Amino acid sequence: MYAQMVKSTGARVKSLDEMDPEERAFQVRIDADIKVEPKDWMPEGYRKTLIRQISQHAHSEIVGQLPEGNWITRAPTLDRKAILIAKVQDEAGHGLYLYCAAETLGVSRDEMTEQLLSGKAKYSSIFNYPTLTWADIGAIGWLVDGAAIMNQVPLQRCSFGPYSRAMIRICKEESFHQRQGYDIMMKLCAGTAEQKEMAQDALNRWWWPSLMMFGPSDQDSVHSAQSMAWKIKQNSNDELRQKFVDQTVPQAEYIGLKTPDPDCKWNEARGAYDFGEIDWSEFYEVLKGNGPCNKERLEARRKAWDDGAWFRDALMAHAKKREARKMAAE
Amino acid sequence: MKAAAKIDMALFELALRMGDNDIVLAQRISAWCGHAPILEEDIALANVALDLIGQTKLWLDLAGEIEGAGRSADDLAFLRDARAYKNALLVERPNGDFAYTLMRQFLFDAWHLPMLRALKSSSEQRVADIAEKAEKEARYHLERTEDLIIRLGDGTQESHSRMQAALDDLYPFAGEFVAPDAIDDELASRKIAPALSEIGALYFDYLETALAEATLKAPVDAPVRKGGRKGLHSEELGYLLAEMQFLQRAYPGAKW
Questions:
Q1: Contacts with B20 (C-beta within 8 Å, 6 or more apart), sequence order
Q2: Which positions in chain B touch A181 (Cβ < 8 Å)?
Q3: Do A307 and B248 touch (CB under 8 A)?
Q4: Is the ipTM of this complex over 0.90?
Q5: Was domain B9-217+224-250 assigned CATH 1.20.1260.10?
Q6: How far apart are CA A300 and CA A96, in angstroms?
Q7: C-alpha–C-alpha distance, residues A45 and A17, integer Å
Q8: A58, A93, A275, B39 - which has most CB atoms within 10 Å?
Q9: Pick from A320, A41, A323, A47: which is nearest to A163 by CA?
Q10: Domains of chain B: which residue ranges?
Q11: pLDDT tens per residue, range A54-65
């Protein structure tokens, strides 16, 4: 998933007794795992939280095109080029899907775009890191899409129908993305010394930012409880992060790579990998806009939007002309 | 003479010319990924680029097979320098604004479709097979660009003037696709490829109708700008290849 620190209501979770009848009926349905559909009554906070989360997720897909798009023109073979284009195209498609899902909650795509471009809406911190070598394309697929899947699989069971259905489809494509990323890494690790070094360097740079994708530690995560009660969120940040580490470390070892974390080792007693302290100051700096590429990413999106204004206007103008001609002919 | 006769040079050139158009244009349009005016266009351009890369592989694989020197489609795409590239100049024109990109695509698609249609009845089966597959894709490409050219030409004043400026600049490059040389004549006489004069007639007739509907005017008596099909390119191609071939050149022999 590409939504981090989505603000929920901020208030503590109410008990059923404290709710008015409408809200209580809503919560009872959620508790019974009945999906909420766009036309159903829902608490304002539920609606707002979902709009924030889905739009943040959509924006992440859109901005996420940029770091990988950076290597499309330099992909090393025709197949790699085609696979990468297809992947970035999938991401644009996910963005489109998710914007549509958010629109069912009463916000327009243009409004959401405006919020992204003004800096009001956030997107995942991970896309503010640069792709410096071809191995970064492998690392993104393997780690970033891997982390996204970890988050998105439970979201398939999200209480809001359109989001849940979008996730079911998106997850299928994400697992293909992850495999292609790992495949790039495997190939590099089986290649020359320089290629292997490139792969290790990419893992070193993307490892910690990938762990940060799950959001702050549970004890610092202020918005989780209400989202969990609403079944917008199903697992805690730390749970998912642990699952990701447990899945990824053996994959790294299998191709002869090591995580950059000296504290990362198997804990027999826990049946899980221990790992070192995440530098949360870096995470908050990136969220504040001070990551290595925040400025460039937003500028690229603004430029695309501003430069394309004439195109969008012209399509609207032509549609109106056509309509007018049709009316005149009738 | 005997050694040269082993390689069917005319057929080799045809495969290169067709494949190089595809890869150079795919390279250009894929640079829009994430930067297009609207999400739907990001997706559409990626689709077209994917089709063109698929076609590149077919044509360049064929070229490698005809040459018989063991060069793969990747070798031909990533390890030839500009002088050995045989694409028409139009496709290597820089992206410019979105109007320029779309007009370039339209002028290409409008030639590509009748050319592939004709190649479907090539006397060379391998050519006919590729054309059979590629023609279906080219049909969609032209449907899309024709629709956009019309809507933007007849949209706002600004879109009209952007499209007209793009047409003025790019139209001189259109003629190269249908200007035959000795290779084309040989291919036509062997019924491997159509006579380019026939494709040219179809091409320009079609352009006239579509451009009129788009309220755009092709420049009159514009001299044809050509050379790419013989390996004489614009300065832009070198940069395009330097970027595209970077990894293969920087790490010779590495597998990716």
A1: B85, B86, B87
A2: none
A3: no
A4: yes
A5: yes
A6: 18
A7: 18
A8: A58
A9: A47
A10: 9-217+224-250
A11: 999 999 999 999
